[in-house]
Amino acid sequence: MKTYQFPKGFLWGGATAANQMEGGFKEGNKGLNIADVLPGGKERLNILQTPGFKFEIEDGKFYPNHEGIDFYHKYKEDIALFAELGFKVFRMSIAWTRIFPEGTELEPNEEGLAFYDRVFDELHRYGIEPVVTISHYEMPVNLVREFGGWRSREVVHFFERYVQAILHRYKTKVKYWMTFNEINSGLEFPIMGLGFAIHEEADKYQPTFQAYHHQFLASSMAVKLCRELIPEAKIGCMILYAPVYSYDSNPDNVLYALKEAQLFNYFCSDVQVRGEYPSYIKRYFKEHNIQLDIHEGDLQLIKENTVDYIGFSYYMSRTEKIEKKPEEMGQGNILGGVVNPFLQASDWGWSIDPVGLRISLNELYDRYRVPLFIVENGLGAKDKVEEDGTINDEYRIDYLRNHITAMGEAIEDGVELMGYTPWGCIDLVSMSTGEMSKRYGFIYVDRHDDGSGTLQRKKKKSFVWYKEVIESNGRNL
């Protein structure tokens, strides 16, 4: 097998999110967030894509994010395992509602701030640098109910107060920041990313893109504050990236794929990295009767406060054509598209395309010429605990090996890649389905879809493999 020369100081690690792992639902004066009101199971994906969600906890439904995997109480045990793996960095998020439970308070919640002090201190005890996402699908529900989420410009000011609080508190403890997790995912899942549910399909365009304008302002403001308070830190954006292939060489399908890629893959990063609205979006706004409420100084703030790097998630590619037949559709690809006959799929129907990662890295770097950071990538699969307690997840090793190989090829192509933090380095609650059975981790957590289990941690076969990958800086795959 070919070996690759990864850069010295390459940031190997793993990725998680507060709402999917912490638990401690009402502990430490934590407030209610969006993930807290999403029930688990197959129903969740339907909720995310169906109009009319009410953002309320209902009797008789199970809410797996309330306990997560109890990182809130087990963080020392988990961080010790991350250190054993050899992590250089650990991507995590701060729960907004631990710091401002309702989102509107004038002063931050000291219990929440102190919790993350303890987590960061524990990471540093092992020489692990935190990579912190400021907002990762956990907006305070109060801001959703009272202000309509990011549709309201007032939320920008609440977010600024939150950002000021955490940057001041952790300015000596966090060197790597990202503003919004998978910011472009709001085009598909506005409940998670934008903090509101679409009620009428015909009315989705104006509120969606006005909400994006407010998020771009909030992101730029966070960049500005970070540079003022922690000038030595790096702050990036974070997008969900899936290369869009044309189903065939029909120019109409090629053009359709291009337009889909422009809107989903590039719109948000064009604004955050280049500092301005892209030219192609003007036609889209005109065709959908979108007129943004832009205040004086907004565009200057965006232009002057672009990000240092692009963090992105990569799970799948997407294949598109204009005229789609029902039998051609990919059942599991959450971003849509038709089945690509050249690719296999995961247990959940997500296309597996390591070459697509190399394509993605080249596309992003050629477009932006800023450092890239793969902050999510992984295989959700059904793991089996054998009678002797082992978990032989060779399929996960194969998946990750092929994707790391693609990274090595992209680096040889000339791509500047900062690091790699596979998603769900420890099993956690799935965002899209709320399931525990969709496992990503190197570390197995004994918790199941119905909430049962001991929460005991076990090392999978992939644990040993990834440890060797990090020790060899990617040479031993």
UniProtKB/TrEMBL annotation:
Instruction: Give, as one word, the top-level EC class.
Output: hydrolase
Origin: domain of life: Bacteria
Enumerate the active-site residues.
376
Q: What is its EC number?
A: 3.2.1.86
Query: Which keywords describe this protein according to UniProt?
Result: Glycosidase, Hydrolase
Q: Which Gene3D superfamilies match?
A: Glycosidases
One molecular function GO term is: 6-phospho-beta-glucosidase activity
Instruction: List the coiled-coil residues.
Output: none
Family per similarity comment: Belongs to the glycosyl hydrolase 1 family.
Please report the name of this protein according to its UniProt entry: 6-phospho-beta-glucosidase
Q: Which organism is it from?
A: Metabacillus malikii
